[in-house]
User: What shape does this take?
Amino acid sequence: MTGNQDDQNGDMVIHRGGCHCGAIRFECDASPEITAFQCNCSVCIMKQNVHFMVPAEHFRLLQGEDKLTTYQFNTNTAKHLFCSICGVQSFYLPRSHPTCRAVTIYCIDPGTLKNVSVEQADGKDWEAWHAVYKAKQQEVDS
Assistant: This one.
């Protein structure tokens, strides 16, 4: 597995979701069985964020682009997007996978996620974790 939810099992579904107030709506193509990351970095731990990666070309923002607010910190690489009305982050642009969208599992409408396995991501020591993660993915992909 490459860390994103490209067709893992040969079957893709359209997951739809959005924020609490409904101003932000999106859809993405991914497997119904996903691997999500629970990150312990300073911002994710406060938000209790659990997310899965979707290649950018498989993600479509349907409405609410004008309602998105961006928060950045540290290296200013990741773009933590959230609804300016209700404050919910339904997806963001991750530092770890710059060609993907990180989609919050709890913001997916019910019915399309069949199985979610959760891996821990050590965002507190991001550089070391990401180096090990990338090495493992290269082994799997080869």
The two ends are 11 Å apart (CA to CA). The helical segments are 42-47, 126-141. The CA atoms of residues 58 and 130 lie 23 Å apart.
